[in-house]
Amino acid sequence: EDESENDEPANKRRKASPEKVDSDDDDDDSDDDDIPLSKLLSPPKKKKKKSPAPPKRKSAPKKKIISKQESNTSEAIVHRTIAGAIFDSGCVKGMLIQRLLCRWWYAIDWPTGIPDKPPKNYDSMDGMPGIFVCTSGDDVGKIKDCRDIDSRPSFSNFLKKTSEELRGLLITAIEEQTKALIEVEGSGTVTEKELKEMLKWAKKVNPAKSDKEASKVLKKANMAAQ
């Protein structure tokens, strides 16, 4: 009996051992159990990228302030004629000349010795004897002044006169223009009021002071009165 018992197959005597479980699987399961369910369901949050700072604006370059001395120096280079220097200066004598040129025919006789017929390709301008405009050819629109260059009413020729003479001519021209205006349009017009204001200004002009101011303008422009 003992031998029979010992002869029992070894496989019957051996108890089946439980299957060995991979420790790695246990670790994975335990790791998942430690993570809250809310975190497993929600997607991972993306990190916000910082937007680049806007570029700094460059301050505009400061404008150079030109002093009166520098301005006068530039005028000396720009102006090449006495008439140009006086005209652009805004001095009293320049204003006398400009205002007289707008109505000189009320105080000065029209120049004589002008041609009766216009040059070829030119036509006479109404109300301006001796002045012609080109109407055909290559110079269409060009103005030709056939009046005597030394005596015709012009800025350069009026500049040769004193402020006293210019002031007298301007006052006469304004008064005669006002008379002609009232005869045509009657009294109380806007133009009449403007002429009255100009007449007041002309009468207040100090001729000696005006000539002195003009001399200073020419001196600053490096020019001498002719």
Your description of this structure?
There is one protein chain. The chain is mostly helical and 226 residues long. The chain contains eleven helices and three strands, in the order αααααααβββαααα. Strands 1-2-3 form a three-stranded antiparallel beta sheet, with no helix packed on it. α6 (82-89) crosses α7 (92-101).
Chain-averaged pLDDT: 77
What is the end-to-end distance? 163 Å
What is the H-and-E element order? HHHHHHHEEEHHHH
Rg value: 52 Å
Helix content: 40-55%
Biggest pleated-sheet summary:
3 strands, antiparallel
Number of contiguous helices: 11
The tally of beta strands, per DSSP, is 3
Q: Enumerate the spans where pLDDT stays under 50 for 5 or more consecutive residues.
A: 1-5, 10-32, 64-78
In what range is the share of β-strand residues? 5-15%
| Class from secondary-structure proportions | mainly alpha
Q: Globular, elongated, flat, extended or rod-shaped: what is the shape?
A: extended
